[in-house]
Write a structure and sequence with these properties.
This protein is mainly alpha-helical. 48% of the residues lie in helices and 5% in strands. It has two domains: 13-57, no CATH class; 70-145, Multidrug-efflux Transporter Regulator, Chain: A, Domain 2 (Orthogonal Bundle), CATH 1.10.1660. The protein contains six helices and four strands; from the N terminus they run αββαβααβαα. The strands form two sheets. Strands 1-2 form a two-stranded antiparallel sheet. It has a two-stranded antiparallel ribbon with strand order 3-4. The longest helix has 29 residues, at 109-137. The chain starts with 12 loop residues before the first helix and ends in a 12-residue tail after the last helix.
């Protein structure tokens, strides 16, 4: 189910941003439809709603899907922010498991999200390691003092 079209349609953007600033996480929510009796919203639904509202409040599109849905290579590429041929290569290399129900490849959303998380974690770890190396060599502190511009000798020139 698409909540907001990919174009980011905002019928009342300011109203949505004001609503998004309200703290929803960890709060008891009730749903009232057309003046009927309030119905308690289960906490798991409230947390999902808080996440959706937060994303919409930043003007980003949201698509709600079951995690066991299977995606095309193009859909997986859009989620990962890569090209379709890159997704095919990840499948061929055994990084992303897939099925072939017909002539096209399908990949489970949960596998795409798990790969995305592994990739993000590996990038964070690499950046942490590079930062630690820069600190050990004194480059980091010197770059801060110089307004984040390393000197020529620090660059190896």
């Amino acid at each position: 189910m698409t909540v907001v079209p990919a174009g980011g349609l905002e019928p009342n953007g300011e109203e949505l941003r004001r609503f998004a600033r309200r703290p929803l996480r960890g709060r008891r929510l009730q749903l009232i439809v057309d003046g009927a009796e309030p119905v308690d919203v289960p906490p798991v639904v409230g947390e999902a709603l808080a996440e959706v509202v937060s994303i919409l409040g930043r003007g980003r599109p949201v698509r709600v899907m079951a995690e066991n849905v299977e995606l095309s290579t193009g859909e997986a590429a859009a989620i990962l922010g890569v090209t379709r041929p890159t997704v095919v290569k990840l499948m061929n290399d055994g990084v992303l498991p897939y099925t072939r129900p017909n002539s096209s490849r399908r990949v489970a959303l949960h596998d795409v999200l798990a790969y995305k998380e592994r990739r993000s974690r590996a990038r964070r770890e690499a950046l942490d390691e590079l930062t630690a190396d820069a600190i050990d060599m004194g480059v980091y502190d010197e770059a801060i003092r110089r307004g984040r511009q390393p000197s020529d000798d620090q660059l190896g020139a």
